[in-house]
């Protein structure tokens, strides 16, 4: 599953055989190279054979590993943690979509899948990973955009791709308050519909990874406004 040239490698984890065929056909028509897995176990077998650029993961999977459980396992593995994940769900309840994001997914789409929308989401995720060549710093936090390394106080921090891009975005304008709408446009793009609560989910995930016990939380929540990278008076033990 290693990349060749500019071809984007997609790992599609979907147990419905008919939907597998349909999705693979349409993704390959869009120019992607697709590997298919029908369960969580098959997904990790495929990951051991090669690293995809994007994983498309169905919520409902056979066996003991659901889509969210696969995603949580992926995010707990330092070698796989930064693989972008788009979760597919037949569930239309917003709470379920937020639960998918809480498990570690970077984005989600509700079935039946619109392939132009899926293509746009994949492209947006890929843009978030584009490399620039500088170091960004705030207090004891350093982000190396060349190697995609994040450190705080000298310790290495492993972030998922969306949390990485979110931190990079905030680091480029410390002290500035960004609304949720501005963050959505910067991270997901202007023409992609994503719920505002998605920003809150990823901010929580970023805080969880960034802040060790006793450390100040560098992300300030500005009531009725949004978020800023700056310490507040009550930011200890973030």
Topology:
Elements: E1 9-13, H1 17-29, E2 33-37, H2 40-49, E3 54-58, H3 67-75, E4 85-89, H4 94-102, E5 107-110, H5 115-128, E6 135-138, E7 141-144, E8 149-152, E9 155-157, H6 161-171, H7 180-187, H8 197-210, E10 219-222, E11 226-229
Parallel strand pairs: 1-2, 1-3, 3-4, 4-5
Antiparallel strand pairs: 6-7, 7-8, 8-9, 10-11
Keyphrases for this structure?
238 residues, alpha/beta, Arc Repressor Mutant, subunit A, 2 domains, 11 strands
CA-CA gap between termini: 39 Å
Sketch the topology as an H/E string, one letter per element.
EHEHEHEHEHEEEEHHHEE
Task: Note the quaternary state here.
Answer: single chain
Q: What is the highest CATH level, the class of the largest domain?
A: Alpha Beta
Assigned CATH superfamily of the largest domain: Response regulator
Structure in words:
The protein has 238 residues and is an alpha/beta fold. The protein folds into two domains: 9-128, Response regulator (Rossmann fold); 135-229, Winged helix-like DNA-binding domain superfamily/Winged helix DNA-binding domain (Arc Repressor Mutant, subunit A), CATH 1.10.10.10. Helix content is 37%, strand content 20%. It contains eight helices and eleven strands. A hairpin with a 4-residue loop joins strand 7 and strand 8. Helix 6 packs across helix 8 (197-210). It is globular and about 55 Å long. The model has no long low-confidence stretch (mean pLDDT 85).
């Amino acid at each position: 599953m290693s990349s060749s040239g500019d071809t984007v490698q997609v790992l599609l984890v979907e147990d419905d055989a008919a939907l597998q065929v349909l999705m693979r056909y349409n993704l390959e028509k869009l120019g992607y190279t697709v590997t298919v897995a029908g369960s969580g176990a098959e997904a990790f077998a495929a990951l051991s054979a090669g690293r995809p650029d994007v994983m498309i993961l169905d919520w409902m999977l056979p066996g003991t590993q659901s889509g969210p459980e696969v995603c949580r396992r992926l995010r707990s593995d330092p070698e796989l943690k930064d693989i972008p994940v788009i979760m597919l769900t037949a569930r239309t309840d917003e709470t379920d979509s937020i639960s998918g994001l809480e498990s570690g997914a970077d984005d989600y789409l509700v079935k039946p899948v619109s392939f132009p929308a899926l293509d746009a989401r994949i492209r947006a995720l890929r843009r978030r990973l584009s490399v620039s060549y500088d170091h960004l710093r705030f207090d004891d936090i350093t982000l190396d955009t060349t190697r995609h390394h994040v450190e705080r106080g000298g310790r290495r921090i492993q972030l998922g791709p969306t949390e990485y891009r979110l931190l990079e975005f905030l680091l480029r304008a410390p002290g500035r308050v960004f609304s949720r709408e501005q963050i959505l446009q910067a991270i997901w793009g202007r023409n992609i519909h994503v719920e505002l609560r998605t920003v809150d989910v990823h901010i929580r995930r970023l805080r969880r990874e960034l802040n060790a016990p006793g450390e100040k939380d560098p992300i300030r929540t500005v009531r009725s406004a949004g978020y800023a990278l700056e310490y507040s008076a009550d930011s200890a033990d973030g």
